[in-house]
Amino acid sequence: MSRLLALKNFRIVDETTDLRGAVIVEDGRIAEIIPVPDTFPENIEGEKRLNRFCAGAGMVLDGLFFSGQSPHNAAELPVLMPAFVDLHAHFRDPGFPEKETLESACLAAAAGGYGTAVCMANTKPVTGAGAQAAALHRRAAALGLIDLYPALSLTKNMEGRELSEITRLPGPAPEDGGFRVRLLSEDGKDLADDGLFLAACAEARRAGIPVSCHCDLGGENAATRRAIAMAASSLCHIHIAHVSTKEAAAMIREAKSRPAGSLNISCEVTPHHLALVKEDADALGAESRGRVNPPLRGEEDRLALIGAVAEGTVDAIATDHAPHTEKDKEAGAPGFTGLETAFAVCYSTLGAFGVGLSKLSSLMSAAPARILGLAGGGEGRGRIAPGLRADFCIADTGRAWTVDPAAFKSRGKNSPFAGRELRGAVLMTIHGGRIVFDGRDNV
Ligand SMILES: [Zn+2]
Fold first, then answer.
1. pTM of the model
2. How far is the CA of 187 from the centre of ligand 1 (A)?
3. Hey, which residues are catalytic here?
């Protein structure tokens, strides 16, 4: 018997859609989208079909009564978006359970509205083999909260001497959600040896997998210039992680303007670089709680990043979720806890610059899914369309809340947004048609 879930009276938003209506889910996939406008002309046939679906559904979620208290104003319905896809997070598992575990990270991701995440390979041991990545993916699948695609390091143990088992990865597969390695990265340790870097790029190109370059070596601008040159000479897909300077954004803009086929480049920014500046890091302690790689920059850089987002130079927003213990932060460990604040930070920050929800959905769901080869096929995600996976984030964009790290599911409590009021709350996360986070009573 098929499992039927009906979600009605929502504002349905993805990168190309923004309508009022209902979504019918069958066996974990989107079966149908029924627009139900509250103005003339009404969709009488659609309403009838929706009523028939609702009568037979195992569960009906009604946005009008979604807050659990009072009916929503029809003009301010909760927003139903594709679950977010994070290209860059640190789950610390295996090896650092005091910072985070797979369980706490998956809970944090689900609470943040994420349905899919890539975790970086700087674990203990380093994730350098397909079998290790597959084992982590299976452990996450058993928890059933999100789909996890661990990145593989480029070199053994991230020592920069010898290629990892990326040499044994299979060639490109058709776009689907099945498990395969979908991102390669040496994380914060850029590969200094040009020859080895190019050899890694050749393997990545053969396997059809992007390489995420963190561009810290010798400063972000020099490292970004080098990564673009590597993209041009290797023709492998290079993804530039956490862009933070106006110069790096300008270089990527220029690279993307080159003739088609001359290189394949994409990039991400983080919520904290969009929202915060150096003075915020100083106030938190530039060498302790405010420390992050790359560091928070000046207002000019921040505005340049927002401009790059608005114009389309930036493909995706990634959290760089990097949980640490309080003690490690005090000792200067770089990084912020970010999965549970990402949506609200981006919505609060970008809305003021005219970046709407559809654009935000593209940055947080559709574009990262495409970069990972997870946008099409029967297990495709990142958009709301018939046949795709029923991975949703339901948010109340009108709700303001104050960040309290003590309430985080993540073990890492170091958030630069602690105590700040943000707008936009994740109310529910649905993964493969199942409710995996219900925060309606928490906010
Ligand atoms: Zn990182």
1. 0.96
2. 6
3. 320
